[in-house]
Design goal:
heterotrimer; A alpha+beta (193); B alpha+beta (219); C alpha+beta (281); A: alpha+beta; Rieske Iron-sulfur Protein; Alpha-Beta Plaits; 18% helix; B: 219 residues; alpha+beta; Glutathione S-transferase Yfyf (Class Pi), Chain A, domain 2; 2 domains; 4 strands; globular
């Protein structure tokens, strides 16, 4: 699937055996976005010509030349991936430490908000601590893990108490929708002013 | 059963896809919609004064609305696709069938504008399309929380087939599906169904076929 | 800024069969133009400032130029053979470089993945060696002896066959494909891709065909070719960078890509760079 990182767009994928990987979202052959590709076994293949790449980024197979062993120089840039607590983290370069853990919280869904973090904070009435914003509605709290995508857009991962039942999770999802609407209204009003 | 069909029309594809999934063979009559505008010619206007395709003919019955065609195909051959085993589920199916017309009017019109140069206010169409996609995304998230992979149930119904084509083709009109992870998962679930067929703009899931075995000398 | 040497070329700007007095407003390399039928019945094309532009009707389309064409439109002698059916496939707009659209048309290695079970299928993915040349006399790029296994090569083909292709690039945004003709093995079907450059990153693509096929209904022929082209469209709109890189380093060609390599070299040699980028970044 496509994702954003500070180093540019990435293709995020999981091998058949379950390991997550992140590639620069561009096949070095003809520039096609690799996030449109397909996973076979432990490789990600480009949808255009089927060139396939292992988790380490090296090209494994060029279908137009089945007998050829691709030279080691054909490779895509990779990023370091950590898969923890239901959240996939990417680091640009070698990370100094592992990703944060959110004890007692479970990821619910990811959303794109057409507003910056300031507008989200204003809509929630709280301030983000680190990347985490808490939003309380009807005496319940939902946590929002925020990743800015430029100034005017934010990727928002919604987390809930991990003992929430399905009704509570649905309510949390709807609360996150309401928060997004409010933040986008604030952002629009800010632009209009 | 005869389907007046245009290969690039997502509404015609709904009917072809439904038929393929339940094993019904359609007699396809290709219509030169673009560039020939045959759907506005005398033969087809006599059959459907609305001047739209698809048109499904079965004996005396002539249907001109794709949702009605899905209901007809399912009721006749595969009633489990109607999703009407409970009152709530039947209502949910109807809700998404009606909703699917908003997808046609927004994402569908944006696609015709961007691809086949049909008139329209592209900014407005995209905004309406994004609003509809957000509604669908939220609906699918809630279904996922309930442990169900499809729009009205844990198995596919005509509601999924009614919504899938215009959603999967949203990028043709310049509307990205990148912000919609639940839609992407659902799209994969639909494309993984036994008997699934693609249309231009919707690629096959090559991961479903095993990597070909290489034999030296084979071409 | 160097002069755009593509300005003097001929480009398709509409279907001849749809030419009327009312006309259509479109664009050529960023300049708005109007295309209509004049009182004398000929095509009349006017530029953004109201000036008359060169115009001719050929191969089902109206052609025009923003500059001063030094040559008549390229010839496709086979298209004039009696007995061929001429198929107006119609326009498809693509948000991509006009040159990327042509390059994709010249490529066969993508058939099994993008045109699955029609023009190609795994495991038949190998591209055999073929011949590529820039013909100096005609000043055209040619690829010949291109062979590929195809499950359904044409609407008239039943079952899989190894199809032979010849590709020809007579103008920077036009390509002509000659292809095995199932009903008449001694002849070639002619399938063209005429690309109208609207902007460096936007084009209207007008596929056109001249086939020996008296059986298949016209709508079937149109649907077949539209299917193929629209399958390519989602690829073309997702290549990075949008402009075609003419300098090596940005992309990795293999033996299967020799037509593309020759096409890029020919574009660069002539300064046909509208829709191209020259320096790898």
């Amino acid at each position: 699937m496509p994702a954003q990182s500070p180093a540019g767009p990435v293709a995020l994928w999981r091998t058949r055996s379950g390991r997550a990987a992140a590639f620069a979202d561009r096949c070095p052959h003809r520039g096609m976005r690799l996030s449109h590709g397909f996973v076979r076994g432990e490789t990600l293949a480009c949808i255009y010509h089927g060139w396939s790449y292992a988790k380490a980024g090296n090209c494994q197979r060029i279908p137009a030349h089945p007998a050829l062993t691709p030279p080691d120089t054909i490779r895509v840039a990779t990023q370091h991936v950590e898969d923890g607590g239901g959240i996939i983290w990417i680091s640009v370069g070698e990370p100094a430490a592992g990703p944060p853990r959110f004890e007692g919280l479970a990821p619910l869904r990811s959303m794109v908000v057409e507003a910056g973090i300031v507008a989200l904070e204003a809509a929630a009435g709280t301030t983000a601590a680190g990347d985490l914003l808490d939003y309380t509605y009807d005496d319940r709290t939902v946590w929002l893990l925020l990743a800015p995508d430029g100034q005017a857009r934010t990727l928002m991962h919604v987390l809930v108490d991990d003992d929430s039942n399905p009704d509570e999770r649905i309510a949390a999802s709807r609360a996150a929708e309401a928060l997004r609407r409010a933040a986008e209204d604030i952002a629009r009003a800010g632009i209009a002013r | 059963m005869k389907l007046y069909d245009y290969v690039l029309s997502p509404s015609c594809y709904k009917v072809r896809l439904m038929a393929a999934l339940i094993g019904v063979t359609l007699d396809i009559r290709p219509v030169d919609f673009h560039p020939g505008r045959e759907h506005r010619g005398p033969e087809l206007m006599a059959l459907n004064p609305a001047g739209s395709i698809p048109i499904l003919e079965d004996g005396d019955l002539v249907l001109t609305e794709s949702s009605a065609m899905l209901v007809y195909l399912a009721a006749k051959t595969a009633p489990q696709w109607l999703g009407n085993d409970t009152v709530g589920r039947a209502a949910r199916v109807q809700q998404w069938l009606s909703f699917s017309h908003r997808l046609t009017a927004s994402l569908g019109a944006a696609r015709l504008h961007e691809m086949l140069l049909r008139p329209g206010n592209i900014a407005d169409l995209r905004e309406q399309g994004i609003a509809a996609l957000r509604e669908l995304e939220a609906g699918l998230v809630e279904q996922h929380i309930r442990g169900q992979r499809f729009l009205a149930s844990d198995r596919p119904t005509i509601a999924d087939i009614a919504c899938f084509p215009y959603v999967a083709l949203a990028p043709d009109g310049g509307v990205s599906l990148d912000p919609s992870p639940a839609i992407r998962l659902w799209s994969r679930a639909v494309r993984s169904l036994e008997g699934f067929i693609e249309m231009p703009g919707i690629h096959r899931l090559h991961e479903l076929t095993p990597a070909p075995v290489l034999e030296v000398g084979e071409a | 800024m160097t002069r755009n040497t593509m300005i003097d070329g001929w480009y398709p700007v509409g279907l001849a069969s749809q030419l009327d007095a009312h006309g259509r407003v479109t664009a050529l390399m960023g300049e708005p133009i109007a295309v209509r039928r004049g009182e004398d019945g000929n095509a009349k094309v006017t530029g953004g400032n109201g000036r008359d532009l060169p115009a001719c009707i050929r191969y089902g389309h109206v052609w025009s130029s923003l500059g001063d064409p030094q040559k008549p439109l390229f010839a496709i002698p086979e298209a004039d053979q009696p007995g061929r059916r001429l198929v107006d496939v119609g326009v498809v707009r693509v948000r991509c470089s006009p040159l990327r659209a042509v390059e994709n048309f010249l490529d066969i290695a993508h058939f099994p993945f993008v045109h699955t079970d029609i023009l190609g299928a795994e495991p038949h993915t190998e591209v055999q060696n073929y011949k590529v040349e820039i013909r100096e006399d005609e000043d055209e790029v040619w690829a010949t002896q291109v062979k590929f296994y195809q499950p359904q090569a044409a609407k008239s083909a039943e079952g899989g066959i190894t199809t032979e292709y010849m590709y020809r690039v007579p103008a920077p945004t036009c390509s002509v494909l000659y292809k095995t003709c199932p009903p008449r093995p001694a002849e070639w079907d002619v399938i063209t891709l005429f690309v109208q450059p609207l902007a460096e990153d936007l084009c209207d693509v007008w596929p056109w065909m001249a086939l020996f096929d008296d059986e298949t209904p016209m709508a079937d022929l149109i649907h077949f070719q539209q299917t193929i082209f629209v399958q390519d469209r989602s690829i073309l709109e997702n290549q990075i960078p949008t402009l075609l890189p003419l300098d090596p380093g940005m992309e990795i060609p293999t033996r299967a890509d020799l037509t593309s390599v020759a096409y890029r070299r020919w574009l660069k040699r002539h300064g046909y760079t509208y829709g191209a980028q020259l320096v790898a970044q």
